[in-house]
Amino acid sequence: KLLPAPQGRLSGRKVVITAGPTHEPVDPVRFVGNRSSGKQGYAIAAACRNEGADVTLISGPVSLPAPSGCDVIHVQTAREMMAATEQALPADVFIACAAVADYRPAVETPHKVKKERGGLTAIDLIENPDILATISQLDVGRPQLVVGFAAETDDVLGHAETKRARKKCDWIVANDVSPGTPSMGGDKNEVTIITGDDDESLPMMAKDMLGAHLARRIADKLDQG
Ligand code: CTP
Ligand code: CA
């Protein structure tokens, strides 16, 4: 149903990207969630498509238009995002840009919780599956290149490197989301791409530009085999 991708350095390659937050229902009208505009993930999806890739974008709830030419799969919860990611494989590249809610309510109340019927004073939480760690550690069908993101507020590079090692992704893109930095919700981002052998600290740039830069670096890596 999609038009053929333009010819580019990622022609013939399949890229799967998660983006946006997840919403974990408390009841039919309330959720537990993370902050994420989805802008960076959508920009990476568009950039990979512009380089000729066949792109599946698995998106949590955001208010952004679908990037043209990408196959967009809309999900709400982490478990739906996990299932959609597994379904979208095999792929050459997996990029986990989503701000997945780490926990979900242990029970989803099927009816609206009402104040006059006792209301809600606490929510029991259970941990969600880790999509990036799961895909990074697939025995069969692991994408050749798995890229994670690490949004941190202190010791950004230290925490990001620890995360890369723990989850076993190939690269991790680290950014500082301390209050006052523009990356959360804004149109710019300032990141360090940690690859292990060729780390790169980039200046602040538009999220679109960073998407294009990442698409080029991914093409370089796949060319190297
Ligand atoms: N991630 C994921 N599934 C999860 C949690 C995180 O795929 N359940 C991915 C994110 O998309 C991101 C990377 O893992 O690429 C790091 O996410 P982050 O929230 O920074 O790491 P956590 O391991 O959840 O650690 P914490 O939130 O405690 O810092
Ligand atoms: Ca997290």
Automatic annotation (TrEMBL):
GO cellular-component term (any): phosphopantothenoylcysteine decarboxylase complex
Pathway noted in the entry: Cofactor biosynthesis; coenzyme A biosynthesis; CoA from (R)-pantothenate: step 3/5; Cofactor biosynthesis; coenzyme A biosynthesis; CoA from (R)-pantothenate: step 2/5
Cofactor, how bound (note): Binds 1 FMN per subunit.
Positions bound to CTP: 102, 112, 129-132, 149, 163, 167
Coiled-coil region(s): none
Segments of this protein annotated with the region Phosphopantothenate--cysteine ligase: 15-225
Keyword Magnesium: yes
Keyword terms: Decarboxylase, Flavoprotein, FMN, Ligase, Lyase, Magnesium, Metal-binding, Multifunctional enzyme
Reaction(s) catalysed by this chain's protein: N-[(R)-4-phosphopantothenoyl]-L-cysteine + H(+) = (R)-4'-phosphopantetheine + CO2; (R)-4'-phosphopantothenate + L-cysteine + CTP = N-[(R)-4-phosphopantothenoyl]-L-cysteine + CMP + diphosphate + H(+)
Any one GO molecular function term: phosphopantothenoylcysteine decarboxylase activity
Residues of the DNA/pantothenate metabolism flavoprotein C-terminal domain: 10-220
E.C. number(s) listed in UniProt: 4.1.1.36, 6.3.2.5
Cofactor(s) the protein needs: Mg(2+); FMN
Hydrolase recorded as keyword: no
Function, in words: Catalyzes two steps in the biosynthesis of coenzyme A. In the first step cysteine is conjugated to 4'-phosphopantothenate to form 4-phosphopantothenoylcysteine, in the latter compound is decarboxylated to form 4'-phosphopantotheine. Catalyzes two sequential steps in the biosynthesis of coenzyme A. In the first step cysteine is conjugated to 4'-phosphopantothenate to form 4-phosphopantothenoylcysteine. In the second step the latter compound is decarboxylated to form 4'-phosphopantotheine.
Family: In the N-terminal section; belongs to the HFCD (homo-oligomeric flavin containing Cys decarboxylase) superfamily.
Protein known as: Coenzyme A biosynthesis bifunctional protein CoaBC
Gene symbol of the encoding locus: coaBC
Included stretch of the parent chain: 181 to 405 of 405
